[in-house]
Amino acid sequence: MNRLLFFFLILIGIPSLSYAQISDSLRTRNLSARRARHSEDWVRRGIIYEVNTRSFSNAGNFAGVEQRLPELKKLGATILWIMPIHPVGVLNRKGPLGSQYAVQDYYAVNPEFGTIDDFQRLLNSAHKLGFHLIIDLVANHTAWDSKLIKEHPDWFTKDSAGKIVSPNPDWTDVADLNYSQPGLRRYMIEMMKYWVRDVGVDGFRCDVAELVPLDFWEDARAALDSIKPVMMLAEGAYPPHHLKAFDASYGWNTYGILAPIIKGKKSVLALDTVLSIEKGAYPEGSLRMRFSSNHDENAWDAPDVKKFGIKGAKLAAIIVNTLPGIPLLYNGQEVGSSKKLKLFEKIPIDWKGGSEFRKLYTALFELRKIEPAFSDGAMIRIPTSNPRRVYAFARVADASKFLVVLNVGAKAFSGSIDLSSPELAADGQITLADAFTKKASTVPIPVSKQISLKIPSMGFRLLLIK
């Protein structure tokens, strides 16, 4: 999706392209009082790793991804999202290799990456290692030389002169599909069923999902559910998507506030604002995908270590992996890669170094796997003695209890946090164990329920409450 559409999502995570529609939906349907659709445990507790096949290995193909699956297993990822695997259009293409989101044939694979047998081997190997694997689905548009545009030009959007058009003036390499055509809807659903039923993928990340009608997605999801449980991830932030069609949507709201907070342009209290708006807008239990980078942000803005700085990227990683939702890691983040992976070229990732980031992500992913607090727990805000620069909260699921304290200030924090929330049951004394070093200390709880804590500048503490 083009970044021009994203600027309107940043603060509240609601897509500008249908803002009036969303406002009407929220007023008439009262979505926050309704429940989001049920998601499988592997989805709700998942850790998504996004693979850009062109850049992931020196070979730049499916075999290169398959070869490195054991590394991703050791890292702790559980869901692999493979960017578009289909042949790329040549007509009107951008850059030397074209956009992977300009699809020629939905039933074929990109020869740049290998054959369908190569992809099947990758999928089978991933399943043997315990991964679920989803592929990118570009349902809103095709390449100008696509199989569909040749065989069914009537399935495309046309201007007043009868000429097929792009979705918007910037996306010159693709042609817009018209979902008022019943034949197109049937074709797309059958195609999705093919990849799930016959090939065996576990679902789809759906590109610009908001530009495709909601009722299509709901029909498609019902058809896929009749085959097996799948994951559907919407690129977008449209609240009604969560009722029937999608498991998760993009948390652009939390992503958009990271840089202003980390760079000191906004108080950490701004995070409370976006989370409060999110809670009021979405069905109860909606899963939001949290991220500090992805293929669009890396390519069009900056890699996370450039955007936030080294310390800031680590703070962003803590936020992404401890807020309610499903965390995403884009390939290269685990080694602190500072390369822009341009989408129309092959730019291999430099996998050397970055041990500090790999260690951090491995530890965070392991916590998510073993501690229910991070996948199923409630989030409880914790007051601090520096509310503008120090953000604290707890994640609690029965006996699994954690404190997350972030200091985004340029100075070290030596102050207090308030543990008076009843859910923490902080009476008499508690034992706090550092989630990374495992070092534990017993802390007496005064009547005020405030305890002292020290955190370095641009630092954090992640503490298990025993």
What does this molecule look like?
The chain is 33% helix and 20% strand. Helix 8 runs parallel beside helix 9, helix 11 runs antiparallel to helix 12 (269-281) and helix 15 (310-322) packs parallel to helix 16 (355-370). It is built from 17 helices and 18 strands. The two termini are 44 Å apart. The longest helix is centred in the middle third of the chain and has 18 residues, at 182-199. With 466 residues, the protein is α/β, with parallel strands linked by helices. The chain is globular and about 75 Å long. The model is unreliable at 1-28 (pLDDT under 50). Helix 6 links the parallel strand 2 (79-82) and strand 3 (132-137). It has two domains: 3-370, Glycosidases (TIM Barrel, Alpha-Beta Barrel), CATH 3.20.20; 378-465, Sandwich (Immunoglobulin-like).
CATH class of the largest domain: Alpha Beta
Residue windows where pLDDT falls under 50 for at least 5 positions: 1-28
Mean pLDDT: 94
Biggest sheet strand line-up? 1-2-3-6-7-8-9-10
CATH fold title of the largest domain: TIM Barrel
Tell me what the CATH architecture of the largest domain is. Answer: Alpha-Beta Barrel
Number of structurally distinct domains: 2
Structural class category: alpha/beta
Please give a quick description of this structure.
The chain has 17 helices and 18 strands. With 466 residues, it is an alpha/beta fold.
